[in-house]
Model the fold of this input.
Amino acid sequence: MNSIKKIATTLGLGLALTAAATAGDAMKMVDEAAKLDVKKVCDVKANGAAKVLAVAEKYNPAAVELGVEFKRLGIRNSVYIKGLKEAVKAKKPEVTLKYKAKGKEKKKTFKTDYAAWRACTFAVRALQQVKEADKTYRLAIPGDGFKF
Amino acid sequence: MQRIKLLAMASVLTVALSVSVSAGNADLVKEGEKIFNTKKIGNCLACHAVNGKKINNPGNLGPKLQGLSAWPEQALYDKVYDPYATNPISAMPPFGKNGVLDDHQIKAVVAYLKTIN
Amino acid sequence: MKKSIVRASVLMLVGSVFLVAGGYNAQAEKDRKALVQYMEKKFSDPAKNKAMFFPYATDEDINKHLKKGVKFEEFRLGSYAIDKGGRDQYEEIKEMPPYEDNIDAGEELYKKYAFFKKCFPDPAIAGEYPKFDDKSGKVVTLTRAINQCLVANGEKPWKMTKGKIADLEAYFAAKSAEAGKKVNIQINSKAAADAYERGKKEYYSQRGYLKLSCANCHVQGSGNRVRREYLSPLLGHTTHFPVYRLKWQGLGTLERRIKGCEKNQGENPHKPSSDWTAEMLYFMSYMSNGLPVDGPDVRR
Done:
């Protein structure tokens, strides 16, 4: 009985520590993203699609972790990123994204450069908005920052 | 004789260029109008009515747009790109900054907005 | 002058009912009263207050649609409290409500599984949820409570957004409305107050690629229109669930509705089973304290 308890406590602690670690990692990404100029960093003409996609890949996982991942017209940013990996590597001018909406399989084609810019912007901005909301949310609360 | 020929060529070129620019501009305006009125692109009509134009059931969360032809193009561009300069909790999305409309699409919207009196 | 004294004393009465021992809900009460004050002021006279609350409303909005002098209890009707045109349609549909079968189905479920009577001896409890469970340190919505009851009795949990769970909630809501119950959310510990504050922060935070907070549409934006839809106010938002939405052609829980809102903000929705969702609903429900429990009901 005692050994089972020991294992359970260790496992529980381990899980808690992992959760804390990933949450801590996500907040590190938030702090990093806050310093970025999203227009510069996601500029495909200046940096090339590969570099821009790399930025998206770096920051979007933290957005997913924090529950702030962007989703537009049925397509999550992770789906953009997944589809772009192959298209950018193979230097294809267009990328077709497959996604599910309302239980049906759907497809949408984008110019690769456009999709890369969007994926990068969506990833960085999702994290930047976490910090921005910290500063602005009270301005909207009646009885707090919102006067009427 | 040479000078007159040169002058004639220059004026033909200028006319040709200005025609192509305004014809190009007409296309840009049309593209901007489409972005404005299409739910899956800009969806501006969700919140904005437009003075002098027939918009299909516009919302009233934002002002009815008027007199924008007098705005500098850069000011219109900046507003659509990121409207938070004046109101930090604005209900208007930062279409450019948040990756909804790219540089070309915003320029098209601006071209359309410039036709609003 | 007299009117405002009467109103102030009514507010104080309504307010004082909710100051519990320990005062853990003191901040929540301040927030709630301020929200009620805002909504009552806003919808007392849209024509007069147009510049402040409805700056871009058209003449048609002011003269034909926006209702004047909306009373506290009426806010449970959502946009039908504030939009005269929508109200007429709503009254028509209420003559033959589409959720009657759901209530019956819910009652059947309550009878079929004997353990439901143990977990919920009194079915008229819809207005008491979400609750905060100090033992687990989590907010427990009615949906979560039903699933906890199922799992504790050897059953698999039900889907949290529609189907059987919505039917059972319809039965609980109908019994609560029948008994004249009011929304009565409690905050009885520091941990509960912290959960409330987290839900509140999320409500007012701008999110998604559209950078919209819930408040952009349902506090500052309430009574204004997106296309032709009058945005419903936060006050009264949660009183009438589960809701039969014409758009869904079916019944859905609060958890189901919140997902749709998140999508409208341009964000991938949180899972209905998440603490995020539960805490958001805790905050929202507290804001409707004192309003009549009005579920199930029909909405667009």
